[in-house]
């Protein structure tokens, strides 16, 4: 773990090593918490957080969905991101992890009396699926784990509890020699990766499933905007696993994963088995945006 100096907790910056909780912290037992994964990049004009407001909005929406009443207001939490970056003096690119969780003081499944707490941590973190993955793509398997069903979980929330599913899918994928898992929805359509949304390319058309069975992804949204700018035809429709076997290109998007090509699915080589031309075009356009090299999207950056 790339330790930093300070973590923000409930209004205060505290030493990284002191950012601790009691063993009877409600969230540790029952899994109700919401979080974000947000990135800040070293641009020419200094460190800048990408789409900070969109991440903060999703964090507060997630809390609403899982019936957690935040103990800090929106503006305070937004500002905490900036304070954490300023105080730590990072020199590389940074991953940020705001977390609203249920603390110590009340046990039992009925969660509403547990005290709510908020933290924002940040550390320097490179490519989530590896630099090699960004360039040459990753090996993906279709998971035996179905994506969290809408009848019993809340997929619009970036909720800690949703990630048991993702963890099991990721574990299975890695143990079986793959780098990432693709989860299907209850009807057998491609839903999402364990922390990414899916895109495929067929005959020049960029296709991504609707968000009925995936998180409403901020990176996916950015890629769709960039594709529109480049006049790439877009379809939002269901995709089956065998359609991915025969597509021209496939890639995953996520704040952590950025734009990572998929070079094979279930041992079927995707396209030419390398990063495809449209993937490369969109990946490079994405990096231009997050590194502040595209004027049109400068409003997405919060400079520190
Ligand atoms: N799906 C899941 C399950 C995720 O955890 C993530 C990462 N937050 C995504 C999709 C991609 O979302 P975003 O682009 O907003 O990071």
Question: What is the fold's blueprint, element by element?
Answer:
Elements: E1 6-9, E2 12-15, H1 26-30, E3 33-35, E4 38-43, E5 46-50, H2 52-65, H3 74-88, E6 94-102, E7 116-124, H4 131-136, E8 138-142, H5 163-175, E9 180-184, E10 190-193, E11 197-202, E12 205-208, H6 218-229, E13 234-236, H7 241-245, E14 249-254, E15 258-265, E16 268-269, H8 277-290, E17 301-303
Parallel strand pairs: 8-9, 8-15, 12-13
Antiparallel strand pairs: 1-2, 1-7, 3-6, 4-5, 4-6, 5-17, 6-7, 9-10, 11-12, 11-14, 14-15, 15-16
Helix pairs in contact: 2-3, 6-8
The protein binds 4'-deoxy-4'-aminopyridoxal-5'-phosphate.
4'-deoxy-4'-aminopyridoxal-5'-phosphate binds at residues 37, 158, 166, 192, 195-197, 214-215, 217-220, 253-255.
Distinct ligands, ions and cofactors found in the model: 4'-deoxy-4'-aminopyridoxal-5'-phosphate
Terminal-residue CA separation: 23 Å
CATH topology-level name of the largest domain: D-amino Acid Aminotransferase, Chain A, domain 2
Number of helical segments with 4 or more residues: 8
Net shape: globular
The chain-level structural class is: alpha+beta
Average pLDDT, to the nearest integer?
97
Q: How many domains make up the coordinates? A: 2
Kindly state the number of beta strands: 17
Strand content: 25-35%
Catalytic activity: L-valine + 2-oxoglutarate = 3-methyl-2-oxobutanoate + L-glutamate; L-leucine + 2-oxoglutarate = 4-methyl-2-oxopentanoate + L-glutamate; L-isoleucine + 2-oxoglutarate = (S)-3-methyl-2-oxopentanoate + L-glutamate
Pfam families: Aminotran_4 (PF01063)
GO cellular component, one term: cytosol
GO molecular function: branched-chain-amino-acid transaminase activity
């Amino acid at each position: 773990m790339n330790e930093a100096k300070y973590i923000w907790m409930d209004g205060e910056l505290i030493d990284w090593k002191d950012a601790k909780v009691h063993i009877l912290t409600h969230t540790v037992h029952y899994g109700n918490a919401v979080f974000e994964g947000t990135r800040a990049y070293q641009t020419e004009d200094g460190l800048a957080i990408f789409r900070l407001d969109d991440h903060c909005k999703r964090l507060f929406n997630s809390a609403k969905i899982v019936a957690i009443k935040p103990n800090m207001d929106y503006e305070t939490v937004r500002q905490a991101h900036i304070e954490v970056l300023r105080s730590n003096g990072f020199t590389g690119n940074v991953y940020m992890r705001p977390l609203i969780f249920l603390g110590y003081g009340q046990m039992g499944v009925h969660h509403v009396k547990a005290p709510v707490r908020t933290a924002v941590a940040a550390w320097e973190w490179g490519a989530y699926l590896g630099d090699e993955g960004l360039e040459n793509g990753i090996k993906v398997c279709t998971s035996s784990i179905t994506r969290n069903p809408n009848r019993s979980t809340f997929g619009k929330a970036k909720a800690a509890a949703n990630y048991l599913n993702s963890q099991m899918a990721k574990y299975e994928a890695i143990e079986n020699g793959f780098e990432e898992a693709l989860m299907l929805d209850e009807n057998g359509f491609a839903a999402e990766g364990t922390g990414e949304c899916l895109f495929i390319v067929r005959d020049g058309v960029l296709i991504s499933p609707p968000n009925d069975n995936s998180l409403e992804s901020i990176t996916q949204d950015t890629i769709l905007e960039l594709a529109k700018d480049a006049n790439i035809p877009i379809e939002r429709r269901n995709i089956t696993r065998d359609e991915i076997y025969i597509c021209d290109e496939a890639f995953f998007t996520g704040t952590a994963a950025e734009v990572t090509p998929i070079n094979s699915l279930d041992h079927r080589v995707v396209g030419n088995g390398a990063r495809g031309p449209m993937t490369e075009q969109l990946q490079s356009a994405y990096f231009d945006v997050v590194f502040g090299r595209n004027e049109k999207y400068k409003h997405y950056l919060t400079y520190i």
